[in-house]
Design a protein that fits this description.
Blueprint (H helix, E strand, L loop, with lengths): L1 E5 L5 H5 L8 H15 L4 E13 L2 E4 L12 E2 L5 E2 L6 E3 L2 H14 L2 E2 L7 E2 L2 E12 L4 E11 L6 H4 L3 H25 L11 H5 L1 H4 L6 E5 L7 H15 L9 E5 L7 E3 L2
Parallel strand pairs: 1-10, 1-11
Antiparallel strand pairs: 2-3, 2-6, 2-9, 4-5, 7-8, 9-10, 10-12, 12-13
Helix pairs in contact: 5-8
């Protein structure tokens, strides 16, 4: 999981998406993924799919369909993995395919103007890439996923002067970011209970923030003196996140049975 955190207008979307002439983290990470896939293509059959989820006012929305009013809910499987039934997953074969997926999603994302940011993202956007690698010889199947998350920016309502729908959005954003902070704090303190269920954001990311996953966070800070207090809060959050220690990464794999029925047996 890779995500960008910071106040509104500090450059999170630029960091994750970037312009065509200077691509952001999303494009660069995907390019590296496909480079590795091509490198190992002789020994593996590799299938890659992509989906884009938006969390807007604590509602999950599919950004790859025009009518994203369909209600979606995240589900926690017995093995601890999280999935969203009904979310569009598009098979992709090149980095350019991913770029097209991102362009479609960008057009459907909730964006509005506030006094702090003319083009403020009013939702969290998550590009999720799922990879299945099937070894042609050993018949082992390895699965993994990468979440690339552009978080909505935290904002002080007094500064942004948000009212009506913008105020509701700001309150929802701040609440979910506060829940993310609570999760980071609990993980840092190695508490027995981690409050993943306190927001849709942390619930969806549950299997990617804890356990044996790996997380990289970019913290964006505004250079403006008027944003000193917000910058300090962002840096404090980064300091807490830095103290989180996750377990060693483990492969998520199964093995195809040797029987002709094509069944799979779990690897223990």
């Amino acid at each position: 999981c890779i995500f960008a955190y910071g106040q509104t207008g500090s450059g999170k979307t630029h960091t994750m998406e970037g312009p065509r002439e200077d691509p952001g983290v999303n494009t660069r990470a995907i390019a590296e993924l496909f480079r590795l896939a091509e490198e190992r293509g002789e020994d593996y059959e590799i299938i890659v799919s992509a989906s884009v989820l938006e969390i807007y006012n604590e509602q999950l929305r599919d950004l790859l369909v025009r009518d994203n009013s369909k209600k979606l809910e995240a589900k926690l499987a017995k093995d601890g993995s999280v999935h969203v039934p009904g979310l569009t997953a598009m098979k992709v074969e090149t980095p350019q395919d991913i770029v097209k997926v991102m362009e479609v999603a960008s057009k459907n994302r909730a964006v509005s103007a506030t006094n702090m940011n003319e083009h403020s993202s009013r939702s969290h956007a998550m590009l999720s890439v799922s990879v299945t690698c099937r070894n042609r010889i050993s018949k082992q199947e390895h699965r993994g996923k990468l979440h690339l998350v552009d978080l909505a920016g935290s904002e002080r309502v007094g500064k942004s002067e948000a009212t009506g729908a913008r105020l509701k959005e700001a309150q929802s954003i701040n609440k979910s970011l506060s829940s993310l902070g609570d999760v980071i704090q609990a993980l840092s303190a190695k508490k027995g209970h981690v409050p993943f269920r306190n927001s849709k954001l942390t619930y969806v990311l549950q299997d990617s923030l804890g356990g044996h996953s790996k997380v990289l966070m970019f913290v964006q800070a505004s250079p403006a003196g008027s944003n000193t207090s917000e910058t300090r809060c962002s840096l404090d959050f980064a300091a807490r996140a830095r103290n989180v220690e996750l377990g060693q990464a483990k492969q998520n794999s199964t093995r195809y049975g040797d029987a002709g029925d094509g069944g799979r047996t779990a690897k223990h």
